[in-house]
Specification:
about 70 residues; alpha+beta; 2 helices; 2 strands
Length: about 70
């Protein structure tokens, strides 16, 4: 497993256009869009470092429901 996510990056992880990739190698929109979709659907997207290394992302969405309510 990798080193996980730095404390600095963890605070900006879901910000639009934030990326740790070199210029031209990423837009920084993937996690921002994913987070927005999760929240819009009544859920949440969380990130944390795993104790043995690497990172864990948890997506929680409500059961059922109608998107057109």
């Amino acid at each position: 497993a990798g080193p996980g996510i730095s404390e600095e990056a963890m605070t900006k992880l879901f910000d639009p256009f934030y990326t740790t990739k070199p210029v031209g190698k990423g837009t920084g929109l993937g996690l921002s869009i994913s987070y927005g979709l999760a929240v819009d659907l009544g859920g949440e997207l969380l990130a944390e470092n795993h104790p043995q290394g690497g990172a864990v992302f948890t997506l929680s969405l409500p059961l059922g429901g109608n998107l057109h309510d």
